[in-house]
Amino acid sequence: MIQKSTLTFLFGLFCLSVYYVLRPPIEDVQIIPTYKIVSFDQLEGWNIDDHDQALQSFKISCERLIKYPDDREYNGFGVALDWKEACQDALAMAMPSSEKAKRFFEEFFSPLSFYEPEEGLFTGYYAPLYKGSRERTDKFKAPLFGVPEDLQAINLGLFDQRLSGRSIVGEVTGGKFVPYKDRKIIDMGALENQDLELVWLEKPEETFFLQIQGSGFIELEDGDVVHLGYAQRNGRPYRAIGQYLIESGDVAREDMSLQAILDWMAKNPEKSNELMWKNPSYVFFQERTGDKPVGSLGVGLTPGRSLAVDREFIPLGMPLWLETYQEKETDKENLERISHLNRLVIAQDTGGAIKGKVRGDVYWGIGDEAEEKAGPMKDIGTYYLLVPKNVAHALTKEFEK
């Protein structure tokens, strides 16, 4: 007599056989390439750019890249060794002409475009120059803080290699690890009496926008200038406050810019704090030496040639051919698009709002003139990735004809 368990097994085997006989055929999966090699002639404006300026910025990156272990992964674009030959040659060049710098990039790199072309948003940023004081006074009441002792940044790569390079920020409260204090709580005095104040500025709006830019310079009452750079953030998500002004109808989408936000705050001082609190992200600073802001790559930034990117898609140190626009404010009501902004830039920084495969933030320098360039910039564009020729071939060889 056949046991029930045997009958169950035979019935299951029968069903499985029927499935494999009657199932629809599996179609071949088509693998779509990610990149394709293009020629330098396809880069609009390539032949007329000032390549020597980009080369100087690239050399600054190379001073860091050259120290990486040879086998260090370069975010899907080979390993550090693949980049070192170009860096060594660049560092050996003293003061090359623009034409010689152009030939350098053409010799060592191949431009890659995304196989399916994409466009994204490009904005601008700068390093503010504000008046400030080492002490709180009747005039200077808005603090810029160093990193609090209770803030903890945990390297997730210690727990899982797949999360290498990622971290989570929070604090321990009641025996539990929880998100760190948000902007409103900090502004309401949560960090007072901890001796964290580095300097004091005149207005909360100045501390807010210095945090957005990530670094800045403070001119003290005795004439000394303090350079403050990014040290850590509170881990809260970044929210663009301009979006709230668009949604409320206070500023038209096409008119949105840094200057438009500042103008709204000047006209609505009683509402400024509430607007800033809609962005819970908060940046803490440290004092730096040198006359250049330092980006996420750990090197000084070059006006007009350093680009903040999303490092999930673009490795820091990579040259990029940027194609977008540049604008200027003609008056308080109008922006004039003045020219194509096609130039060679170097990925040297990141930012809380810089997210996406095609997304960039152009660094324009220090002070008011840089603010005038950075503030109105908000345009659609794209970029091409310049990678060592052997890496470009490896990334595209499966699809080359």
Describe the structure.
This protein is an alpha+beta fold and 401 residues long. It has a domain at 125-302 and 364-380: Barwin-like endoglucanases (Ribosomal Protein L25, Chain P), CATH 2.40.240. The chain is built from eleven helices and 17 strands. The chain has helices at 4-22, 51-65, 80-91, 98-108, 183-190, 204-213, 241-248, 258-267, 272-277, 368-374, 389-396; strands at 35-37, 109-114, 120-127, 129-133, 142-145, 152-155, 167-173, 176-179, 197-201, 215-219, 225-233, 283-288, 306-308, 319-329, 335-349, 359-366, 378-388. α2 (51-65) crosses α3 (80-91). The radius of gyration is 26 Å and the shape is globular. The model is unreliable at 6-24 (pLDDT under 50).
The coarse overall form would be globular
Q: Tell me the helix content.
A: 25-40%
The stretches of 5 or more residues where confidence is low (pLDDT under 50) are: 6-24
Report the order of strands and helices. Answer: HEHHHEEEEEEEHEHEEHHHEEEEEHEH
Number of helices: 11
Provide the CATH top-level class of the domain at 125-302 and 364-380. Answer: Mainly Beta
Span of the ends, CA to CA: 65 Å
Biggest sheet statistics: 6 strands, mixed, barrel
Kindly report the average pLDDT value: 88
Structural class: alpha+beta
